[in-house]
Amino acid sequence: xxxxxxxxxxxxxxxxxxxxxxxxxxxxxxxxxxxxxxxxxxxxxxxxxxxxxxxxxxxxxxxxxxxxxxxxxxxxxxxxxxxxxxxxxxxxxxxxxxxxxxxxxxxxxxxxxxxxxxxxxxxxxxxxxxxxxxxxxxxxxxxxxxxxxxxxxxxxxxxxxxxxxxxxxxxxxxxxxxxxxxxxxxxxxxxxxxxxxxxxxxxxxxxxxxxxxxxxxxxxxxxxxxxxxxxxxxxxxxxxxxxxxxxxxxxxxxxxxxxxxxxxxxxxxxxxxxxxxxxxxxxxxxxxxxxxxxxxxxxxxxxxxxxxxxxxxxxxxxxxxxxxxxxxxxxxxxxxxxxxxxxxxxxxxxxxxxxxxxxxxxxxxxxxxxxxxxxxxxxxxxxxxxxxxxxxxxxxxxxxxxxxxxxxxxxxxxxxxxxxxxxxxxxxxxxxxxxxxxxxxxxxxxxxxxxxxxxxxxxxxxxxxxxxxxxxxxxxxxxxxxxxxxxxxxxxxxxxxxxxxxxxxxxxxxxxxxxxxxxxxxxxxxxxxxxxxxxxxxxxxxxxxxxxxxxxxxxxxxxx
Length: 560
Ligand code: FES
What we know:
Number of domains: 3
Radius of gyration: 24 Å
CATH class of the largest domain: Alpha Beta
Distance between the termini: 37 Å
CATH architecture of the largest domain: 3-Layer(aba) Sandwich
Strand order of the largest sheet: 7-8-12-11-10-9-13-14
CATH superfamily of the largest domain: Response regulator
Bound molecules: FE2/S2 (inorganic) cluster
């Protein structure tokens, strides 16, 4: 039965003084008759469309579908733009601006007469930024992601952007792919709008929006150009109007249990390591205590089921055809909190009870899991007292327990200058270490952590060695890469003390990352550490440097 609630927007329009009248007049100046909007829920459509963001470039069409759904359900849709962050274009890194986008979204919602909001997102940072902003604003909200692009195609071979792009580019670097072939790959890698079509950060965050209960079941994996993407957008438009009437806000949905569900799904899909940072930030916005230890505890009990690149073989199109996130959730339902409420108004268990799998090779049954543990391992030790992460499903099994001598790059710039040097003194046992790539050091916590394999080793057929940094890594990347080392080197974390030739032990099964240097010596090196000069002295950059938290806390601002 419909519940009658006082609409938030009535605080703008139904006021006796001049401004109530003038706001109605200004809305009518857009051509809306008074009978069209009076007394009806106004639904904001928060659109991160931009031609500087190929992943989200179709979202105006998606917005039209949302509007149809809103109108049909008796609401009034009003679309508004926000900052958009295109992963490949924004410098120095989109992560520097995630919090700015979250603030833009939050304040746009807070400041305008909307009763509910539909969040249109897709590319990596746009999904967590919109969720963070909407959680803080706490008006009814539903997420509609833009969906993955079509699978890449080159000479009859399917390609996943960007995992296969990285592999083919490495072949080009090693002289095994011509300039002409690389140009062909460039044209076939991304064949449509939509986000990267592997289980990178965008696909992961779209899946986690579903897992959190913030998107309609099945939304995450529908390809961007598929007509069913528009259909689910239309249904989401209808549902947000009902959510306004039910007063179903993010604060009712985002409980500790819902966050735990998202972590579990992240592990089962072999999600991007970036999801750790984003979920920590979302949890803090929701006032839920979630820590790296929760990720590790859940990782140890949730099997890895989704056979999609970069950790598996298939692409998001096949994942969608196999049944998508609802099937994953049904398969790990005993490990989830099935009673969590979602944007459907139903529970997680009710949403997925009829989800059928159409391809057990793409979404494995729990009894035939790809790995018995989840995708992300959380490491600790004297090199990362506040934690580090490793995507174990995309790493080399032979390097899961490894001790080797460090070769240190003091910065990303130094790494780029030296990595292709033919006489770089490295071998298959070397541990590459890169510093100054964290939230403050880089700045902005860029995706530099996938240190390219040294050319000298590629030419010898060595495709993976242990690489450690305080950076992030693209969700489309792979290899035995340790990331998010906290505290970062630029604030005097132990990573700052590593020197070329030191021995480092990585032990993923024991979750250990250890610098084999005597404690006294390590303390002496850290005591001599001098922090680098700040990158910014004004503007948003200064705000970022002054207030960003470390990776283990989600890199949100301390005042948000
Ligand atoms: Fe946008 Fe990969 S570049 S999701």
